[in-house]
Specification:
This protein is mainly beta and about 80 residues long. The protein has no helices and six strands.
Length: about 80
């Protein structure tokens, strides 16, 4: 009965820095690059029946740089079930 059960996991950690003109002394991350990204899935496939439950996660990230840190735009972290 459990012969078609499986799982898939992966994760990525990225440490990045970029220099922006006028803000050279600050350590800013790459634009639109989350530090943590992860995915997990459970699946069952047997005969004509298939089912899958998946979760994905993306850490917060820098979308745009302002004149100073108060003007920077960040997107918050996000998790999603499918």
């Amino acid at each position: 009965f459990l012969g078609g059960l499986g799982a898939s996991l992966n994760g990525t950690w990225v440490k990045s820095e970029v220099q922006v003109i006028g803000r050279e002394t600050e350590d800013l991350p790459f634009f639109r690059q989350s530090e943590w990204i992860a995915n997990a899935a459970l699946f069952y496939e047997r005969g004509p029946f298939e089912a899958r439950l998946a979760w994905s996660y993306r850490d917060d990230y820098l979308e745009a740089v302002g004149a100073d840190a108060d003007g920077d735009i960040y997107w918050g972290d996000r998790g999603q079930w499918d």
